[in-house]
């Protein structure tokens, strides 16, 4: 009988070892043989607590692999990477590369899975927020007022509260003030607020939580968030997108949140060359921003809130 030899039978491959026994539930080089002795191919293999993927020829794969529309990373031994970073990409507990979400260690990854550099969620050491004396008017009512160590709202309730009560016009007023100060400092014409563009960004800020991309969840580009008749009023239309973090405690007012959100998103784009260039386009332009608040973490009484933000600038650009 042949030994140390491949044997084909009924379209399957087997391996006859030196002792005359067929390989089964074991590795022979970079090939794995199943319980019935057939070579694994086009399939996953679990061995010693690790997962491996065998291609159509039965060869164990290494490196990046796209399998059934998902991306995986197989390390040098072929074992699937889980719960770890591979370069700028994070592999989840099931080995699938995370996309458009927050990683377990607090980083934002975009729709392409790549780390969106610039900010990590850093949790405070103390569970108790710093108490600040509230001297606001009724229009500046604190987000919450609570003096024990328990939050008065769940993370989901706080998210809903912010999205229902934040005044987007206040955010626009503060943002456009910051933007025009920067433009004037460089001798560039100022922009004006556009209620038409706001219709678009108000849709886009919510969509960014679903798909952090200039392509909308329905596959169309960002400008289609406006009806064609309205978008045609603008010869030029550019979008910036970002998703910074803000921290809320029991003494922060809605007005403070609005101002902080506007400042955060402005500085994010100011410190990014390509986004800064879009904000500084010269011409007779209008602009609008919108922020969609998404609860990320609750640490003691402090809420960690992600601000999905869209800016549209439209008009006649001439630089």
From TrEMBL:
Signal peptide: none
Sequence ranges assigned to domain SCP in this UniProt record: 178-295
Cell wall-binding repeats: 3-22, 41-60, 61-80
UniProt cross-references to InterPro entries, sorted A to Z: CAP_dom (IPR014044), CAP_sf (IPR035940), Cell_wall/Cho-bd_repeat (IPR018337)
Biased composition (Low complexity): 127-142
UniProt region (Disordered), positions on chain: 126-149
Key words, A-Z: Repeat
Alphabetical list of Pfam families matching this protein: CAP, Choline_bind_1, Choline_bind_2
Name the record gives this protein: Putative cell wall binding repeat-containing protein
Species, as recorded: Granulicatella balaenopterae
